[in-house]
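Record type: monomer structure entry
Structure origin: computed from sequence
Chain ID: A
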Amino acid sequence: MNKLIEEMEKYAVEYDIPIMQKEGLAFFQRLIIENHIKSILEIGSAIGYSAIQLARLDPDIHIVTIERDDERYMKAVENIERSGLKKQVTLIHGDALEMDIDGKFDCIFIDAAKAQYIRFFEKYEKLLNDDGVIVSDNLSFHGYVEHPEREMSRNLRGLVRKIKNYIVYLENNENYDTSFINEGDGLAISRKKKTNMIE
């Protein structure tokens, strides 16, 4: 397994595939263990790196992961097959904004097109269990979000603006308590607020 992980990390660097940074991944893994998370919906499989790293934590963890890019999807299929975790990981090929997923999940992990984070959140939050958590990655976006003075292209500036809009959206979402974690490339942990039934 470690050999596969190393190969995936090397492949990601070589082909410029965004995979979760190690510090952020380690934090996420601790979150899963501490909260006894068993079912995860991942939006954005890439080459299957995070799905494999999460599934290997516990044989009772099951992950549904969605990837729209043909090449990355095929590589993810290959990697999950090699990992021996095929029974725990269901890989779906398609656009997460154009499909419907059944089931309920302890965790929804958003790690796909940054410009669509609000749409992903609003489309899939109904699948979250009451005590579930939504995890969003790349909210620092390589430091550009905190340092808008850095030189960037027009496209990158637009993307950074959309990430900032998503952060504001989470801060103002009255149905969730969101913590922003400065690990890896910046994470948001959004938990459903408990509705107080007794006044």
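Annotation 1: The longest strand covers residues 128-136.
Annotation 2: The helical segments are 2-14, 22-34, 49-55, 70-83, 117-124, 154-172.
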